[in-house]
Amino acid sequence: MSTSRPRGLRALVASLHPYLEAAPIGALLLGISSGFPYAMIGATLTTRLAQQGIDKRSVTEFSLAFLVYNLKFLWAPLVDRLRLPFLSRFGQRRSWLWFSAALVAAAVVFLGLTDPSTDLLATAVAAILVGVAGATFDIVIDAYRIEILEPRQLGVGSGMSQYGWRIGSVCAGALALLLAGPAGWTRAYLACALFSLPAVIAGLWLGEPSRHRAPARLQGLAALRETVVEPLAEFFRRNGAWLVLLFVLLHKIGDTLANLTVRLLLDDLSFSNQEIATYDVGYGFVAYLVGIFLGGAFYTRLGIKRSVLLSLVLMAVSNLSFAILAQVGHSNAMLAFSIGFENIASGIGGVAVVAYLSALCNLTFTATQYALLSAAASVLGRLITGTSAGALIVQIGYVDFYLLTTVAALPGIALFAWMMRTGLVDRAIAETDVRRSA
Question: DSSP secondary structure string, 290-326?
């Protein structure tokens, strides 16, 4: 018995060791900074607008600010190649990391200074600026994360990044809600701007990534082609690239629609700020961490393909829980179940899908290719939310709306299952060393 205990302890320590290496911890810090701008123009702003009497159609239209994230591939080539004055001596990735951190902090401060009840247009402009700065921050963070992680660390690093993203988004959202009452929304946003610092610290600690493959220095039309055309051309030259991109476009429609409208549901069901902070923020945070842990376990045991397929099914089914909540009404028990189920499913999907998208990137064009893939992952859901989700909710009600989001997830599941059966998932991966590790 005394022998089995030390062995069990050694096994536990060995299982935790990959999470305690420098690069995965750096991915955690990067994720914290990546998550907080999303919270500022997502659930936090939705709650702020709803409490100030802004109508549902206008509130859901604010989700169009997220579309900036879906356009980030347009300027991602600049992040790959453009050298910043003064800062470039610290390296291409670190200089952009620190510059974009300053931009996003300034944009969040500006959003906090606006008043939607008196000048809704100024608030909309500020939200878009946060989106632009946050998207640029994401471009750099994603490229830096992929390049500091060795192939063997891909699954662990993706999980740690998702842990960080959730910590950043939840803590920033909770801080904003808790400070808004006694101190006002302006001070709440000013405090949340500090969440840009963990990425800055990661850059100082880890240095310029050794796996970064700088593209050749060219001039004239050759430089333009290398900067803008070649990253996309390299991806689309791969076997079945268009089908891979179609999957990326389709797989998250239902999940995005559900996530971007849930705060409207909670407001209409008369849940208080305290209940939202407790269940949607606090309980959801714990459930998401559990989901990420399970996602890492599934990734290790099932491999990248089967873990992605499992996560897609779970995320689709999780939307049904919101339909049940809408039918039941104000119930803390049902809210806890819905939030728990959805966050566990999202945590599992975060590990598996992020690892898959990371494996698709050629390290010479990391920023551009990951920006394209991550932007495509939620563009359709965000576009539908911003243009018609509010009107759909008014017309058909919350129950039917969340049933519709479940149906919307089915084409992505079917396409990925077909890609697995035909071997297309493996053939589209860019790096052979990444493929072996997965």
Answer: HHHHHHHHHHHHHHHHHHHHHHHHHHHHHHHHHHHHH
Tell me which residue of 42, 278, 257, 26 sits closest to 149, measured CA to CA: 26
Closest CA relative to residue 47, chosen from 177, 170, 178: 177
Q: What is the pLDDT of residue 434?
A: 41
Checking if the pLDDT of 88 tops 70, the result is: yes
Residues 6+ apart with CB under 8 A from 140: 79, 93, 96, 97, 100, 367
Kindly provide the b/e burial profile for residues 235-268, where b requires at least 16 CB atoms within 10 angstroms of the residue's own CB.
beebebbebbbbbbbbbbbbbbbbbbbbbbbbbe
Query: What tens digit of pLDDT does each residue of 397-416 get?
Result: 888 888 888 888 888 899 99
Residue 415: count other Cβ atoms within 10 Å of its Cβ.
Answer: 20
- Residue 152 is classified by DSSP as G
What is the DSSP code (8-state) at residue 126? H
- The CA–CA distances, whole Å, from 350 to 12, 87, 229, 259, 395 equal 24, 32, 29, 14, 32
Say what the pLDDT of residue 433 is. 41
CA torsion, ordered 66, 67, 70, 71, to nearest 10 deg: -120
- The region of weakest confidence among 28-42, 170-184, 258-272 is 258-272
Residue 63 scores a pLDDT above 70: no
Distances in Å between the alpha carbon of 238 and those of 62, 227, 367, 429?
37, 19, 18, 9
pTM for this entry: 0.72
Q: Which residue has the higher pLDDT, 105 or 424?
A: 105
Residue 360 CB contacts under 8 Å (≥ 6 apart), including other chains: 235, 244, 369, 373, 428, 429, 430
Say how far apart CA 251 and CA 246 lie, in whole Å: 9
